[in-house]
Amino acid sequence: MKRLFRGLGLGALGCLLLASAGLMGAARAEDEIRIGAIYPLTGAAAGTGVELKAAAELAAAIVNKEIPLPGNLAAGAGMPNLKGAKIKLIFGDHQGNPQVGATEAERLITQEHVVALIGCYFSNVTATASQVAERYGVPFLNASSSSTPLTERGFKWFFRTSPHDDLFVANFYDFLKAVEQKKGVQLRKLALFNENTLWGGETTKIEVKLAEEQGFTVAEKILYPAKSTQMTSEVQRLKAADPQVLMQSSYLGDAILSMKTYKELGFAPPMVLANDAGFSDSEYLKTLGKDGNFVLSREVWALDLADRNPLIKQVNDLMKGRNGVNLNGNSARVFTGVAVLADAINRAGSTQPEAIRKALQETNIPADQIIMPWKGIKFDEKGQNSLGTGIIVQVQNEQYRTVWPFDIATADIVYPFPKWEGR
Questions:
Q1: Which phi and psi (to 5°) does residue 92 adopt?
Q2: In the chain, where does the domain assigned CATH 3.40.50.2300 lie?
Q3: Is residue 272 a contact partner of residue 369, using CB atoms and an 8 Å limit?
Q4: Distance between CA atoms of 324 and 327, rounded to whole angstroms?
Q5: HSE-CB for 78 with a 13 A CA cutoff
Q6: Which segment of the chain is annotated as a signal peptide (predicted)?
Q7: What is the DSSP string of 5-34?
Q8: Which site in 217, 238, 394, 416 is 20 to 30 Å from 323, CA atoms measured?
Q9: C-alpha separations of 206 from 108, 170, 195, 213 in Å
Q10: How many other C-beta atoms can be found within 10 angstroms of the C-beta atom of residue 88?
C-alpha cells in the first residue's frame, strides 16, 4: 500500500481519498451528515470565530430538532428526506492564515470525510480553502466573505449566500448621495482606510473606481498592514487629508485600535462609514463602550428589523439564551449559511456531492423564510446569491440602529460624527 501511495500523484491520491470519503459518507447517510466548518478559532480574530461557531451550532441544533423550528425558517429541520439524519459539524481552525485554511479544508475532506464545507469569514482564507474543495469536488458554501472575485473564478462547487463588495460599495455611494439630499450637506471628499488582505485590497479598488464614476474625490488612500499594533502615522495622514467621509474596512482588532487612535489624536471626520466585519463584532462595543458610538456601517442584518420579520427575534432569542450574546451581521450570516446548506442536503435526499451541488443550484428560498433583510436566496450561474441586499446601520447609544434605506430605517442618522471632546 505504501508503494501504491508513493506512485500516485497528488491529484490521483486526492481522488482515491475522496472516493473513500464518499463511500464512508454514504454509509453514514441515514444517521450522520458531516459538514466541515472552518473559522478563526484562535488568533487575533478568535472572538469573532467563537460567535460564528456558536451561530453554526445553533442552526445545526434546529436542523437536528434539538430546538423547535422557529416559524417557517428554511432549515431542513429533521432531514425527512434522509430518514431523520443528524447534522454533525466538524470544525477547523484557520487562525487567520490562508495556508492553514487550505490545510484544514483538506483534512476535513480526506480525514473527517465531510460531505460539504462552510467558511471561512476571512476572504483570503475562503479563497484558498475553496480551491481545495473545488479540486476534490466537494460543495463549499460561503456565508460571510464578501470579496467580489470569489465568485468570479468559474468554480463549479462554490456558492455564496452573502452579497459581495461590489454591491456593498455601491450602497455606500447611494447612501452618501441620499444623505446629501436629505441633510443638505456635501460628502464628496473621501479618505479610504482599509486592511491590506484580499478583502481590503479589492474593496479599495471598487471604492476608487466608483468614486471616479460618481463624482467623488479620494483625498487619501491607505492600505495598512492587517493586524497592525499601532496606527499613529496612518491616522495622522488621515487627519491631514481632512476628509468629509472616512471609508474603512477592518477586522476586529484593527477596528478597535483605529477607534482608540482616532480618540487619542482627536480625529473626527464628519462621517465614519465602515465596511462591517470588526465594527459589527460583539467585542467591538464590549471593548469600546460609548467610544464605539456614531460609526456607520454597511450591514446585512440588524436586530431592530425584528418588527418587520418575526423570525429575527425568534432566532436571536435562541442565540441569546444559548450563548449570552445577540446575533450580529457576521453570526447571522453563518446561521443562515448552515440553514441553507442543510435545506439543500435535505432536498437532495443524499450526501453525494453532486446531488448536494445540484440542490444548491436549485435553491429558491423566499424572504419570509430567512432572518436576513434580503429578497430571498437564489444562486446565479456563478454561485452568487442574486437576491441579497445591504443596509446601513449606525451605533447609537451602544446599539446598532438601521438608518438606510430610509423606508425601513428605525432611527435618523446622527450627523456629523461628534467631536471627541464634546461627547
A1: -120, 145
A2: 2-163+308-377, 166-299+391-422
A3: no
A4: 10
A5: 5
A6: 1-29
A7: HHHS-HHHHHHHHHHHHHHHHHHHTTTEEE
A8: 394
A9: 34, 9, 14, 11
A10: 15
Architecture in CATH for domain 2-163+308-377? 3-Layer(aba) Sandwich (3.40)
Beta pairing partners, 384: 160
| Cell 479598488 sits on residue | 205
Q: What is the pTM of this model?
A: 0.81
Answer positive or negative: Cα dihedral of 274, 277, 278, 283. positive
Residue 299: in which H helix or E strand, if any? strand 296-299
Contact 114, 108 (CB under 8 A): yes
Q: Residue 120: what are its φ and ψ, rounded to 5°?
A: -130, 10
Please check whether residue 226 is in contact with residue 197, taking contact to mean a CB–CB distance below 8 angstroms: yes
366: which strand partners? 376
For residues 327 and 371, give the distance between their C-alpha atoms in angstroms, rounded to a whole number.
11
**Distance, CA of 379 to CA of 393 (rounded, Å):** 26
Q: In this structure, what C-alpha cell is assigned to residue 309? A: 420579520
Q: Are 383 and 130 in contact (CB under 8 A)?
A: no
Asked: is 166-299+391-422 a CATH 3.40.50.2300 domain? The reply is: yes
Percentages (nearest 5) of helix, strand, coil residues in the chain: 50, 15, 35
How far lies 92's CA from each of 14, 55, 117, in Å?
Answer: 19, 15, 10
